[in-house]
Amino acid sequence: MLLERHLIEYCSPTLASLKTANLFNHSFTSEEELRCQLEYLNLQLGEKGISLIELYRRGNKALIYVYRKSHLMKDLNRPGVSRFLKNYGYEEMDVDHALDRLKIRLKEEGGFPHEIGLFLGYPLGDVIGFIKNSGKNCKCLGCWKVYCNECEAVKTFARYQNAELFIPGSGEMEDQSGSLQ
After folding, report:
1. Which residues, including other chains, have CB under 8 Å from residue 40's CB and lie 6 or more apart?
2. Nearest Cα to 135, choosing from 143, 123, 125, 147?
3. What is the pLDDT of residues 97-129, one digit of tens each?
4. Which of 72, 122, 146, 162 fits a disulfide with 153 by CB distance 3.0 to 4.6 angstroms?
């Protein structure tokens, strides 16, 4: 199953419980096929605390979000996050409402809204730094552009890479997600 292969290839840090979430684009041949595959994987992984949802669709490509609800709940409740997200129309910080708002923001933006980094487990300071610097002048670059705690980010990137080493052909999801257009 192609969706299962993408999950393994692009989401090993999330599967290993090191990262809140990953994203990837998935081509499908029918809506029924996509629905059945997501349903099957959610049944298989749900007991492990992992969920898959479609965030956005264009034509026969779906942006799949693979996440650990418990991790995302913690991320959304970190200091400053709710205040930051309220600027983008997030009224409630529970996971389901926040994800519903993220889906709307993806449609509105036609691309990735900057706050999506928070849904991937990126530090708030780095998301704010990215916005303020228009994606330039970062201290280092790994799974995301780092503007704050470079030392901690480098350690985190190494942990993610170690999780990927256990899966042949794996790669970092954010590099593979591509444009929404």
Report:
1. 1
2. 147
3. 999 999 999 999 878 899 999 999 999 999 999
4. 146
Q: How far from 176 is each of 11, 63, 81, 85, 148, CA to CA, in Å?
A: 11, 11, 26, 25, 25
**Burial category of 143 from C-beta neighbours within 10 Å (exposed 0-12, middle 13-18, buried 19 and up):** buried
Q: How far is CA 16 from CA 12, 27, 52, 88, 160, in A?
A: 6, 25, 15, 30, 9
The residues facing 179 across adjacent strands are none
The model's pTM: 0.86
Q: Are strands 145-146 and 140-141 parallel, antiparallel or unpaired?
A: antiparallel
Pairwise CA distance, residues 139 & 148, whole Å:
8
- Backbone φ, ψ for residue 65 (5° rounding): -110, 120
Query: For 54-108, what is each residue's pLDDT tens digit?
Result: 999 999 999 999 999 999 999 999 999 999 999 999 999 999 999 999 999 999 9
Residue with tokens 């595959």: 37
Q: Is 98 in contact with 90 (CB distance < 8 Å)?
A: yes
| Distance (Å, whole) CA 110 – CA 62 | 13
